[in-house]
Amino acid sequence: GFFAHPFGTLLTPFVKSSEGEDGAESFAVAILVKALIAERSVPKMTRLLSTNFPRLVCTTTYGGVAEAFQPSAEASEAVVQRPCSGTLRLFGSDRFGQLSKISAVLAECGVTILNLLVTTGFGDRDTHEFVERAGGPLSQNVISVAAFDRAAFDEDLLRREVTRAAREVGYEVTSIIFDTQADRARREELADYYLRRKSSIREYLAKRGDL
Questions:
Q1: Which of 85, 87, 89, 115 is the most exposed place for a label (fewest CB within 10 A)?
Q2: pTM of the model
Q3: What does the pLDDT look like over 72-81, one tens digit per residue?
């Protein structure tokens, strides 16, 4: 059996079938999704799920603040306030448990992971660029994050804690870019990350005697 909890979606098998249509062993899986949606759109969503996935037994429950509720001006401002979003880039030797540590630090800083892209690969001995390839000894992680409670979010604390944790788990290069930064600052930070990544690869290859 298995249990997965990817970004608020629960996946867990609850019935094991003897065999599927192709003769292979199959499972019946329950999928629980929590979504923010207007109450008037619930019937349409349920109809679309049933139409597009005819073999899916769909049960929809909903609740929350009534649409007719009129919040105060202060509450309305808080609702429309956009989260502080950004992108983390981490590069270094691929090790077990690295992302678990980073995820814990992000949670402690009140930051939510929106998207995660993990790639492994090698360093090119001529250009010192990162070459993506499954099973490579080097790892690059691009993590999209957001702080939904901007009043409680401390950007300086996040930068310190992520940089510290990244070093502890083996990432040689760390970059944290927030959308609130000026365009020029974001471009310069990204360029600096790629230069530092290139330097890190050169040092890595030199230690291995591959230069």
A1: 115
A2: 0.62
A3: 555 555 445 6
